[in-house]
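dude i think i finally got it to work??
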Amino acid sequence: MSAYFALKYLHVATVILSIAGFIVRGIWMMFSSPLLQQRWVKIVPHINDTILLVSAIALVIMTAQYPGPLAWINAKIIALVVYIVLGIIALKPSRPMNVRIIAWCLAIVTFAYMVWVALTKNAVPFA
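look at this
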């Protein structure tokens, strides 16, 4: 298997783990589960998301698809920032629950947009 495909599969695996973990943590948040306070729940997502980000950067470098002229990569980067901000709002215990649930839902929609952009290499939905 080439280094490119190994890296791509690592990236896709971490994408799946990232959204699955975010959805589970959001459900735990809505039900005020004590599981959300477990040490590993606070550490593992950061490790996974670091691997996700490093693999994304490596893929961009490996394929020479630098941000700038490629609208779809720029769209993914902007959507990633939006996703991170919404995720912080959603999982921050000091915020009102209704705000957290709305942010959680919007983060999932933003994540779906990033996946759509990655699969279609098109920054504009339904274009």
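Helices lie at 3-30, 39-62, 71-91, 97-120.
im so relieved honestly
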